[in-house]
Design a protein that fits this description.
Elements lengths: L1 H14 L2 H25 L6 H18 L8 H20 L4 H21 L5 H8 L3 H12 L34 H17 L3 H12 L4 H8 L3 H26 L1
Length: 255
Amino acid sequence: MTDLIDALWARYRRTGDPHARTQLLDRYLGLVHHSAHQLARRISRDVEIDDLIGAGTLGLVQALEGFDPERGLAFSTYAMPRIRGAMLDELRTRDWMPRSVRMRSRQLQGARADLQHRLGRQPSPEELATALQIDMPTYWRWQEEIDGRVLLQLDAGHDDAEEHSPRLAESIADVMAAEPGDALDDQETLVRLRDAFDRLGQRDRLVLSLYYYEELNLRQIGEVMHVSESRISQIRTRALKRLRELVELVEDEAA
């Protein structure tokens, strides 16, 4: 069985074979159902299990697209945080929804997951509307109800009668805009951090990468590295302390 899975991964990564992709998704769909039922038992509020499965399936698809077998990490270990994260995101967006909107959202999410599974890409709004057998105005109304957002045409002017009137986007302050010189400071900080990270020991780098980049928790990292969760916690604490020291050292060297 392991040889078969390895062969599927190799074929999918080499050629993008949609049949291999479908087989891989079918193979790991059990992770979604397991996580959905596990999460449903843990939370006290009422939740539709199909909502969790739909969200988790999208998380599985995203994990499949981002997974690199050559890193030596098991796919289930890589995918589970993304599946659970997609389900938790779904729960957070559902808190305000009336039942009718939840039902439409579930239909939309199911159609999106099915089309993405079959097409190997994100479906267009037109393809979703066709799958749901609704017209485009209805699709956009459903989407607006689900998102709960007001749509504004930022490229439009304040007064459409004035050809050269300023665009709405130009009148909205960008609170995220960087101050002059911030980009250069950030780049220098990133270079120093990378330099310091490269000076860490191999085990320290691996633990920090799995925790902060792969988003695994301490228990999952322990399973990957075949050590206890408490040991991983010790390594992470030590690695962060050493990383801070090395960043200061690199800054002193650059001064």
